Amino acid sequence: MNMPIGQFYEIDADMKVPYTVCGGLQDNGEWCVPSAVRDRNGISMADGWNIGGGDGFHVKFDPTDWNQVYAESQDGSMGRVDLTTLQRQSIKPAGAYRWNWDTPILVSSVDPHVIYTGANVLFRSADRGTTWTAISPDLTAQADPATMKIMGVVTPPTALSKDDGTSPFGSLTTISESTFDPQVIYTGAQDGTVQVTRDGGKNWTNLTSRFPALPPYTYVSCVLASKHAAGRVYATFDGHYGDDYKPYVYVSDDFGQRWRPLTSGLPETSINRLREHPGNPHVLVLAHERGVHVSADDGQTWLALSLVTNLPPVPVDDVLIHARDNALILGTHGRSIWILDDIGPIELLTLDSLKRDAALAPIAPARELVMHAPQAWFGQGNFFAPNPDFGAGINYYLRAQAPAMAAIEITDSSGKVVRHLQGAAAKGLNRVLWDLRADVPPAAADASAGGRGGRGGGLPQGSLVTPGKFQVSIKIPGIDRELKGDVLVERDPITATRR
Asked: Tens digits of per-residue pLDDT, 401-426?
């Protein structure tokens, strides 16, 4: 109750404000939790709610209705769940197929009515899972597990508890659809098989033999069609099932015909997931058994996220980047759901930025939130996660120490300066948080100096700015070029303090 040690396999997030994260937990069903609450104490266990049972795995939001999700437990037991009523309709395709313990589900980015799932064949539904059509032959190696060695020997038929607790061998583990052309679909399987169709499933090409230095039957942990280039696709593999802990990460720019590795600087560990930044084609995030590595140069070099954050070396099974809030969201085994609220500073680590004297990171949208401050502090002994910073995070990079503080001006759409701030000028990354308030008028500041028996009435607080688009300008002593960026300030739509 007082430790964040949950074990999440798969996660997804909606576009509500604040957004909700849902995911599947080891032997504990599927759960949802808000990314922020209005309570000053932070996000508590009381803010989470359960939406399904079993060994929880995928939860996918319907992009046109955030109250509808697809939730899945072991062996493809999936359902469509209404988060308002918690009504659930089973939508697992019928028939005798080989399903993985962690069965993949994909919602089409082109048509939200279309969803995919996979056993040893790929299924497509055009009506949100009510009916299904198999659009492929068997996409696995169709190997006989009874002939395969485990720990150096073939398991005899007389073995006690033979295959107890295991799923049928040879099933799909990952599915990806191209955002450029929904006819292009990639699949990966438990037995190392990677296949692609470029005509919606009529014809398939087996790509398995085209990965350099990849041992046979290596578990495919992720295949990802790029959002930034039509022919680009990534693939990762997990070899620990065969006592192989080398990192296997590949990219192709010709629909999987030729692959090259992206492993320079990665630790010896199993790879679980790769994600692209939705807006920056150079930024990649890699989840593995010892944490997360990030790259800002297309995977040529990698940086451990633990070097710049408080992420411990825990297994990370899933990762996503929130397209609107630019937050990095992780599903971990040992730290539950872990969120870096602003990945903007990571984007500054490109070689182009590091060559400059100074660079400003993209500024995520900011919202004016009114916090609830109860007199009592409830929940002693329970875990509370801190809320994200409520305001605009201004992150900038300096190649060298500046001789004095940075001067920051924030102007509204008419060009009027509404706030002056000062920021650090240290070598490396610097951060300033604008609380979305305007400067205090001089008369109000002077009036606050007296009163209350000459002891002062405390510093006055400027009023909140009117929501809209603002420009941030940063002047750094010794650097001629002024840093400029935009920030959108939005009004908070939340009316309730608790779910």
From this structure: 999 999 999 999 999 999 999 999 99
- Say if residues 189 and 173 touch (Cβ distance below 8 Å): yes
Select from 343, 378, 402 the last residue of a domain: 343
- Give the bridge partners for 328, in sequence order: 321, 340
DSSP state of 464: B
Q: Please name every residue paired with 205 in a beta bridge, in sequence order, or none if there are none.
A: 196
pLDDT of residue 166: 79
Which pLDDT tens digit goes with each residue over 44-94? 888 999 999 999 999 999 999 999 999 999 999 999 999 999 999 999 999
Amino acid letter for position 295: S
User: Do 221 and 259 belong to one domain?
Assistant: yes
Query: Do 322 and 439 belong together in one domain?
Result: no
DSSP per-residue codes, 120-166: SSEEEESSTTSS-EE-SS--S----GGGSEETTEEPPTT-TTTTTT-
Evaluate whether 191 touches 217 at the Cβ level (below 8 Å): yes
Three-state DSSP class for 259? coil
Q: What is the 8-class DSSP label of residue 363? A: P
Mean pLDDT of 276-294: 96
pLDDT band at 380 (very low <50, low <70, confident <90, very high): low
pLDDT of residue 117: 98
Q: Give the domain range for residue 377.
A: 358-491
Q: Are residues 274 and 410 in the same domain?
A: no
290 and 376, same domain (yes or no): no
172 lies in the same domain as 295: yes
- Interior angle at CA 336, CA 335 and CA 337, nearest 5: 110
Q: Specify the 3-state DSSP secondary structure of 397.
A: strand
Segment 166-191 mean pLDDT? 95
Beta pairing partners, 333? 7
Question: E strands within 229-356?
Answer: 233-238, 248-252, 260-261, 271-276, 284-288, 291-295, 303-304, 316-321, 328-332, 337-340
